[in-house]
Amino acid sequence: MIVENPRELRWKKVAAHGFLIAFIALIMFPFLVVVSISLREGNFSVGSLLPDRPTLEHWYLAFGQPFTRADGTVVQPPYPVMWWMFNSVKIALIASVGVVVISTISAYAFSRVKFRGRSGLLDALFIIQMFPTTLALIALYSIFDGLGDVTPLLGIDSHWSVILVYLSWVTLHIWTIKGYFDSVDPALDKAAQIDGATPWQTFRFVFLPLAVPIVAVVFVLSFIGIINDYPIASVLLRSQETLTIAVGSRFYLNEKLYLWGDFAAAAILSGLPITIVFLMAQRYLVSGLSEGSVKG
Amino acid sequence: MSDIALRSEPVARPRDFRWLGITIVLLLTAACLYAVWTLYIMGQPLLAMLILVLVVAFAIIFTQRRFYASRFIFPGVAALLIFTAFPVVYTIYIGFTNYSFLNLLSYERAREVLLSRSVIDSESERPFGLVSQNGQYQLFLPEAAGGLLSDPFALDGTAVEVAANPVEAAPETLAMRDLVPLRANLGLVTVTIPDGKSLKLSGLRTFAAITPEYELQDDGRLVSTLDGSTLTPDQSVGFYRDDAGKTVPPGWAVNIGTGNFEKVFNSAGIRAPLFAIFIWTVSFAFLSVTLTFALGLLLAMVLQWPHLRFKPLYRLLLILPYSVPAFISILIFKGLFNQNYGEINLILKFLFGIAPEWNTDAWLARSMIVIVNVWLGYPYMMLLAMGFLQAVPADHAKAAALEGAGPIRVFFSITLPQILPPFLPLLIASFAFNFNNLVLVLLLTRGLPDMIGTVVPAGHTDILASFTYRISFLDSGQQFGLSGAISLVIFVIVTVIAYANFVAVRRAAAKGGTT
Lengths: 296, 515
Known about the structure:
The complex is a heterodimer. By secondary structure, chain A is mostly helical. Chain A is built from 12 helices and 2 strands. In chain A, a hairpin with a 5-residue loop joins strand 1 (67-68) and strand 2 (74-75). In chain A, helix 3 (81-111) crosses helix 7 (171-182) and helix 8 packs across helix 9. The radius of gyration of chain A is 25 Å and the shape is globular. Residues 292-296 of chain A have low confidence and may be disordered. The longest helix of chain B has 40 residues, at 2-41. Chain B is elongated and about 120 Å long. The two termini of chain B are 42 Å apart.
């Protein structure tokens, strides 16, 4: 370990690279297959990894365009993928704005504002966050069934209902931002206080500008988390035009109507943007996760 | 300069906006109070009460300066209470009711449904015509000579009551095709003829006397206007019973005490699969955590090796499974693992001549779900492990190596004991996550293949959370009550895990604080 034998070291290097390359090949297999399927004719897995007669049929359909095959038959897109994408992005954007606002303000309060029961409330938050919203789906369904009688805006099949539920996914983010605020020098808010700033003004003019990077990260994380949700959206959204992409994608792999090729193109189309955003943000996700929960 | 900016803005602002703020608070409060009232009327007293409490708190906190500090946490706490804490409590409450597809309504709504049933008196049924004059309409009911002509009325979607009187000659009436678009509004017209009867639209071409089928008695019973038979509400089952004691739909949800729990624990057709599912849920969560942790740690250690080149590239490729949205990769695996058309069996057949039955064999389906979950979860563990490994001082390992310890000994005696305590809370959280990994099960297998001989559909790959999801929303007739009872079991387990995690975090924090 300290003095390495050069020959042994070379073998070790070969072994390490070999292991990593083999492992990555195994891991990447699904992605390669999906790209291949999306360019292949038909909806069943026949043929080689490199398609013999590549076609853009599945891609046309994924973009919502009808496709004319070589023999003249016109294929219509099976599902409104782009519309579902739009629903997903709309819901995730609106809800994430709400999540960011709520969690930033709450994190500031937990980090700086002194009020009675603060530590008790923090502990309670920590316990509550372990209960995923998905466990109480029956109650959520019943709640929105009832709220729908008050106004259809908050009923089943309304995007606003789903957004409201996602607003409660703030706990983890409160911890992340609180960890960040805790590291801000207390001299700053002392200075603001001496200048006569109220806690709200300290937040608005001192902490908020400082928090822009972490707020951006929380926004991206919350956005991805919401796009990925299946259980809540599947219970609260029922009709085809209100579905999100996560709920709608499932229809492609129905045993009765198995659209493997169409699914492959739609999956790449909807997955790629989110993947890229995620790869840019993942560094912060992990540090936030480990710090948020360990710092207590 | 900043000094001036801070001073001039903050002091001046609150005064100007104070009244605007109070107006907004009052308006919001009023809107919410309306919602509370409607919810209460609609038979959702629990939710109405919670919102009422929150609204009152909101009004007080945002108008009284004394509660200034609370304003910061109110939105977060309110969101958590309504959409996380309340649903948990409400689910438990539902577990004590017979809320299901058969008993879906509230008592008041069920009564309304029965009371709105009507019978058409066929003797009074008679054809009609409609006379149009200057935007006003008159109803004409022909008789042997002449007929009855009503007073003029407007068909604008409001309910009208008019009287009809005899006329000598039949007026000119609208043709059928002009009548059709007016049908909806015609349904709101009640016409009283000279013998005192009130007629309403009863068919495409007819008006008739329509009477409600049931009349409400003071004691809550419903008496039929047809044959005088009675329906008696039975609050213990949530149904009306007729004279023979048979239940009459629609039913309403009533509290049935521990009925669902007795079902869960006494009916072998539920207890046996529930127990099997519980064992599988724990094993699945445990396997997922251990395997992802082991694989992630191994990869992290290889990546940390100082002699390795191309580290950033390897790292990027290795975390790719984590960055693709889970719902997409799970569905991709669902397709790849399809035992008839999937690529995996195609390759296995080509290489080894075998085609495992991933979809119909219980153990193969379970292995599939674990394989997919390890694929999904190892990058997270790897990223965490890379962070924690950096905190392990290199000198310790070097010293151990000098003493003659092999790499495996060094790992188990030096590295693992140092990273395990800070890792523990995250492992527990991961366990809790997988314990309720609804997305994976719903998208990959839906719990299939199903067990044989169960009262409610239960699958070999079902976890507790997906089991309740199926009972309430998929194939078993929306048995919300039963599902709620099973959810209570899950809540108890999750509470234990949450508490364990809480303690682990406290310990880790205490340790971190002292060093």
